């Protein structure tokens, strides 16, 4: 019944918009993707069979705005083909709410946006929506925004259980408390962003819940120098790990792009085996699939608190008419010692992708990736480094605009 209530609200919004100076939009997304893998995220064994799965994201997006407010509602269904009975008899597979927010405009420059929403900043290294994943990421947060010559955002989130007699939180989210401040200033050929993220994770100590806070401080600068596009990230993490150890971790990225080519290097610090200090950088809530290879061996629900990563990469991008082609080559090495006498080289990955814009509302894309793993990868990932490791996909994306 809940989904019918949501649909009723959307229909009501359509009629209201007809009699006002407001803007109402209603769009959809249908995105099935079939993936075949042998050694995706972890090393495979030589005699291991390849797997093939199809998953789909379906969305209904509604938006309303006028001179006083803006609102957004995104209903979402994510499923693997075959995981729902043909005869559905319960609400276990109900549509979920991916976004549900309202933004109050106090003035043209200052506003408050509160509710379930995506947080996407800069290149999405620390805060991103993980759009490649069917479920994507959104937060329950209050966001204060000032945007004129500069942009200044302040976000705050606090989670607790429904029991009002205490302040404990043991829910599914990654944090109990989170605050961030983001600043951005752009010029004709350059842009500077600064970020301060305070992240609090609950943990039990002597039967009592405590919150361990860490701080991520840094930013991103980008510009154009003589026709060469350059960009760099620098983030430092400090604070207390949930284990009680002090954190001292670093993330650095530098890349240069000319024409269709991009050459770059990223360093995410790690902790040496047997070391007591915590030096592993955590990219937290970023779109990690975008960065260190599409086979997701690093920082996509894994590799946290490990030996870090050095990623040297070369990317090529080509597009003409309705066709797009991308080729990425990554050279991976551990940023810290893996084990006594272990080589830091982890592997080389090749990612290829091809897309075809059939029309303005439909796109078909293909991809194939292969990991050529080094011997030391076996220490981090269960499997056989000499086996063949590959992953591929085909995806259909249809995004109709029902009302605009």
TrEMBL record:
<protein>
    <recommendedName>
        <fullName>Alginate export domain-containing protein</fullName>
    </recommendedName>
</protein>
<dbReference type="InterPro" id="IPR053728">
    <property type="entry name" value="Alginate_Permeability_Chnl"/>
</dbReference>
